[in-house]
Amino acid sequence: MMQSRAMSLIEAATNVVVGYGLAILTQILVFPWFGIEAALHEHLAIGLAFVGVSLARGYVLRRLFELIRVRGTR
């Protein structure tokens, strides 16, 4: 069964949202180990800087693997 482009985007977005939450939590826990002090709003801004890249990466990789899968079934 082929995954639609819309479902690829939804999957990638869900992955990014979950990853964003984990990244914020990780930053809050790990930054102090390296002497990096950041307020919550700074953690959120840092995380948002990577959201677009993560979303695009997830979508492009999903579409690439879907293309490989479709070509492999021919």
TrEMBL record:
Annotated transmembrane regions: 12-34, 40-61
Matching Pfam families: DUF7220
Keywords: Membrane, Transmembrane, Transmembrane helix
Keyword Transmembrane: yes
Protein name as annotated: Uncharacterized protein
